[in-house]
Design goal:
Largest sheet: 9 strands, parallel
Number of strands: 9
Helix content: 10-25%
Distance between the termini: 70 Å
Strand content: over 45%
Number of domains: 2
Strand order of the largest sheet: 1-2-3-4-5-6-7-8-9
Radius of gyration: 19 Å
Shape: globular
């Protein structure tokens, strides 16, 4: 089993276990990834644990983030504590004191957390998404009208 724990800048790392503290990486492919006060552009692993870190894209069976940020996370099981994520796709999601953008989950358990859009089969906790199904439909219709009007106006101006 190989182990990586040296600071890299924009490097690509493939290993069984990656321990990263206070540094950033480009792409990480490993069975287990531990990040503390560091980050990575892309992580593809079986298990990811991140504390006070950030990642653009995480793909893993298990993701556990604490006081961290992720743009896109795709997991079988994801646990978030005092963290933020742009898009989360998970079969089982627990978020405590966290903020999420688009959340798609089989089962979502949220405590003191908020999400812009929530699509889930099962939801536990007091959740008030900013956009529910009706709100998303209305927002889509409104944005379609605005974009269509702008295109029509643009065509009318060009014809003159």
């Amino acid at each position: 089993m190989s182990e990586q724990s040296r600071p890299y800048e924009s490097a690509e790392v493939e290993a069984d276990v990656v321990n990263l503290e206070g540094a950033t990486l480009g792409t990480v492919e490993a069975d287990v990834v531990h990040i503390r006060q560091g980050g990575a552009d892309r992580i593809n692993a079986t298990s990811v644990q991140m504390q006070q870190g950030g990642a653009f894209m995480i793909q893993a069976e298990e993701i556990d983030i604490h006081k961290s940020v992720s743009a896109v996370s795709n997991a079988g099981s994801m646990t978030m504590d005092a963290s933020s994520a742009g898009t989360v796709l998970a079969e089982d999601l627990y978020a405590g004191n966290s903020r999420l953008g688009l959340t798609i989950a089989g089962r979502a358990r949220l405590e003191n957390s908020s999400t812009v859009v929530l699509l889930a089969r099962e939801v536990e906790g007091n959740v008030e998404p900013i956009l529910d199904a009706r709100g998303a439909l209305l927002a889509g219709i409104a944005s379609g009208i605005v974009v269509g009007s702008m295109l029509l106006l643009g065509n009318l101006i060009r014809r003159r």
